[in-house]
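Translate structure to sequence.
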């Protein structure tokens, strides 16, 4: 596998570079912060159209923050996020909602709402004074519940469900929105391994068969490498590498991004990169050896 990576567009030498806005969704030299706590500076990314893009990186590296900015939930303190060539913050909320759907990391349902009613709220962007609930809306809701395996829960209250069931209901609501771009922040949270694969298979189907552009934050690097067509590896709010998983996922990259010694082999099922962490003993010996070298150099 090639160790080639794309240039780091957020470095100081590139601060004034304007990236192409050919693709529908991009971030251009954005600085992202919560109050005074800066998460990323001069960060630029472009989401390839018709891709299944997955953002990976260690905890607190800015993955979810970047997704919030791309979805209009967080306004950059500097720079801009562009959707179809327009600054996303300047666009009407309903217009954005008809183009871009979001499954946030943590969602809270209103008290006493049923599964079918919550999924139906995904149709809100398509409603208006002259267009109320229709048979088409009902069809989309039923189809979205069936795709996510929650159709049999339609009349149940959401607050009665398990964490995994609730997660699938929220995914169904995002699907019911029927947007060409769909952003998902850790969509496999709370799910067992079977349902994780079911959700990722569904995402792959939406991308491959319906032509939707998907952007997901995932913690499992092997899932990301298996399903993504485009991978963005972040560390400390900086893009370390991006590209097709087969082109960028190497043992060196994993150690640089996650600080983990490993081997990268070919997944026997898909041919995509498969990360195999070094055994605890090997990692301990390597750490001890590095500490001895550092102590010798310091003396």
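Result:
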């Amino acid at each position: 596998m090639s160790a080639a990576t794309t240039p780091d567009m957020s470095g100081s030498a590139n601060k004034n570079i304007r990236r192409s806005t050919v693709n529908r969704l991009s971030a251009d030299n954005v600085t992202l912060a919560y109050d005074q706590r800066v998460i990323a500076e001069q960060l630029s990314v472009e989401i390839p159209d018709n891709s299944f893009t997955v953002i990976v990186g260690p905890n607190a590296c800015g993955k979810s923050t970047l997704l919030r900015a791309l979805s209009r939930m967080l306004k950059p303190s500097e720079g801009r996020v562009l959707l179809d060539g327009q600054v996303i913050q300047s666009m009407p909320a309903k217009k954005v909602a008809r183009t871009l759907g979001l499954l946030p990391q943590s969602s809270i349902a209103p008290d006493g709402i049923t599964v079918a009613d919550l999924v139906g709220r995904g149709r809100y962007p398509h409603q208006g004074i002259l267009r109320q609930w229709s048979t088409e809306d009902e069809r989309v809701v039923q189809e979205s519940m069936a795709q996510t395996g929650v159709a049999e829960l339609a009349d149940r209250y959401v607050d009665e469900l398990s964490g995994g069931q609730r997660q699938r209901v929220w995914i169904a609501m995002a699907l019911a929105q029927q947007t060409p771009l769909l952003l998902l922040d850790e969509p496999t949270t709370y799910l067992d391994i079977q349902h994780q694969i079911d959700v990722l298979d569904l995402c792959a189907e939406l991308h491959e068969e319906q032509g939707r552009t998907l952007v997901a934050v995932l913690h499992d690097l092997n899932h990301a490498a298996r399903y993504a067509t485009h991978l963005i590896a972040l560390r400390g709010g900086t893009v370390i590498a991006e590209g097709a998983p087969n082109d960028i996922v190497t043992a060196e990259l994993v150690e640089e991004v996650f600080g983990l010694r490993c081997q990268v082999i070919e997944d026997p099922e898909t041919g995509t990169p498969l990360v195999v962490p070094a055994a605890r003993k090997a990692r301990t010996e390597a750490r001890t050896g590095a500490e001895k070298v550092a102590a010798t150099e310091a003396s």
